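Quick one, T. Sequence first:
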Amino acid sequence: MQRVSQQVILPRYRNLASGEIIEKAHDDLVTIADREAEDMLAEGLARIDSSLAMVGEEAAHSDEAVLDHLSGDCWIIDPIDGTHNFAHAKPPFGILLAQASGGLAQSGWIYDCLSGRFCSAHRSGGAFVNGERIAAKTTGEPLPVAAISLIFLDPERRKSVERHISTHYRTVDIPRCAAEQYPRLVLGQNDVSFFERTLAWDHAAGALFLQEAGGRIARPDGSEYRVDEHGRTGLLGAASPDLWDDLARLYAQL
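Structure tokens:
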């Protein structure tokens, strides 16, 4: 991850030509660096274990059949998480990798390309930042801090979120980068967050990291997040189980 960041991603940061940024869909960008980084990451992961299928964000965009591998043993690659930020020459952005089996993430790695912060987690094995074991902590503020994304909500649902949820928290902007959002929930910067889109490459590593640190991440109905439910929406994350329960109660009113 460090090598890909240094050799492929950072040389393109604030150095992209207009033709090297493509809009895959409304407000969904890809750059030449995303594609080059995914290729290089896939090559490196294959050297580690070539028996696992590759599920990369850009490969899946080109061929939806790639998503079928999520129910088996696979590597999951988000070559640049936070591409919108990267393409607009601003932080944060990072690399997300996960190894999954049977639809569940078994290990996850989060690399911040600019700071070099390296988060990792292993199922039933704990969560770590730069090699040091870590436990999730809350902000401790009187009004819990909520990072809430309204980007992918229709106008009516956006109003409902503002009416039923936002008033119970001190709301802050999301970083538009799961590689930053999940560490914020563990490191005492944010207390709760929820996501509408729950694509595996965005959430596999971070969800495991938060859960292994002692926070909670689950579907609104309390069920475990699975990487192979690629058509399902809604995911709630919190720095503690109690904060998760409060958010789930409010979310149920939407």
